[in-house]
Amino acid sequence: MIKKVSSHKISIETFGCQMNEYDSQVARGFLEAAGFEVIGEGNGSDVYLMNTCSVREHAEDKVYSRLGKLSKIKKTKPEIIVGLMGCMVEEHKEKLFRRFPDLDFMVGTRNIKELPSLIEEVLRTRKQVAQIKRDGISIEYTDLIKRDNAFHAWLPIMTGCDKVCTYCIVPVTRGREVSMPAREVFREASRLVSEGVKHITLLGQNVNSYHGEKSVSFPQLLEMLCQIERLEQISFTTSHPHDATEELFQVIARNPKISRHFHLPLQSGSDRILKRMKRLHTYQDYKAKIDRLRELVPDISITTDMITGFSGETEEDHKATKRALEEIRFGGAYLFKYSLRPGTPAAKLPDDIPMDVKKRRHHELLEIQKRISNKDFPFGINAS
Length: 384
Ligand code: SAH
Ligand code: SF4
Ligand code: F3S
Description:
Helices cover about 40% and strands about 15% of the residues. The protein has 3 domains: about 10-130, Methylthiotransferase, N-terminal domain (Rossmann fold, 3-Layer(aba) Sandwich), CATH 3.40.50; about 145-260, 2-Layer Sandwich (Transcription Regulator spoIIAA); about 265-384, Transcription Regulator spoIIAA, CATH 3.30.750. It is α/β, with parallel strands linked by helices. FE3-S4 cluster binds near residues 170, 205 and 206. S-adenosyl-L-homocysteine binds next to strand 13.
C-alpha cells in the first residue's frame, strides 16, 4: 500500500535508454498511487522530474540546459519543485546540489519507490533532499507500473556491467552486474501476459550475460519464457559479443517466438581500436559470430552501434570501420561520435581526434550505412 501524499501535478521527462523508460513507467506508477497527477512533458506542472542519462556529454548537456530553464521559471514561480533521477544522479550525486541550488531533490536508481515521500519532504521542509542508495538492485517489478502500450512491455532482467569497455560510463552509473532470479522473471512475464501483453522486450545493459540463481543462463531463460502460452514475441537488448554464444544462436533458431532482430554492438572495425576499447573481441571474432548466426537463422536482421573518433583512431582504423559496414551489411547502425566521459578508463587517454575530423568520419559512416539500408532493406527493417 502506498500512502496518499499529494494531489500535485508532476511531469516526467525521460532522457535515456529503454531501461530509463522502464524506470519512468515505474516512477509514474508509484506517484499516481500516491495521489500525484502525472501530466505530459512541458510547463504547467508543480513538480518537474527528469530521468537522466550519462552515456554521452550531449545527453548530460540536455539536462543541464533544462535545469537552467527551470531556474529561470523558478524566479517568478518559486513554489515549483525540480528533481532528478537516473544515471546522472548515480554519477554526480550531491555535487549537483551545489552546482544547481534550484534543484530540490534527487533519487537514485535503487530508490524509485521513495519518490512520493521524498517529494512530500521537499514540500514540507523546502530543503534539498536526496535518496541515493548503493546496495540492492535497481529493478523493481510492480503491478502499479504505467505502460504506454497495452501489448508491449519492457522487462528488465539484469542491470549493471562487469565488462570494462574503456569509453563507457555505465559500470560507474549502474554498478556491477546483478540478475533477477529466473523464477521472478517468469512470474512477472506471466503476470504481464495475463494483463494482455503479447510482446516482451527483455532489458539489461549486458542482457545476454544474465545469470540467474542455480546458474540459469540467458539462453535457458529465453527457452523458459517461450513456454508462456499467450506470449507471442520476445525481444532483448543490449547484447555483448563476448556472451553471444552458439547456445544462444541455437535457442533463437529453435524458437520462432524469439524476435528475428539482433542488436550486437561492434563499436569499431579496427582490432587496434577494439583492443584500446577493451572490447574483448577482434573484428574476425565478431564477423565469425555473425556468419554463424546468419547460417542458423537466415531471416535474422542484425543492427549495431559504432563509435567514431575514439582516442588514437587513425585514417587506417577509420577505413577498417568503413570496410566492416560494407562487409557485414547491417540492417541498421547507431553511429556515435566519441565523447570522453570523466571517470572512465579512457579519460586517461587523449581525446585527440579534432571535432571536425570526428564529424567528417561520422558523416562518411552514415552515408555508407544509408546506402546499404536503402539497397538491402528498401522497405526498412522490422526492428521489433
Ligand atoms: N549496454 C548499454 C550500452 C549503452 S550505451 C545499454 O544498452 O544500456 C549505447 C551505445 O552508446 C554503446 O554501444 C556505444 O556505441 C555508445 N557509447 C557508449 N559510451 C560512449 C561514449 N563515451 N562516446 C560515444 N558513444 C558511446
Ligand atoms: Fe543512459 Fe547508459 Fe544509464 Fe542507459 S545505462 S540510462 S544509456 S547511462
Ligand atoms: Fe558499456 Fe561496454 Fe558495458 S558498452 S555497458 S561497458 S559492455
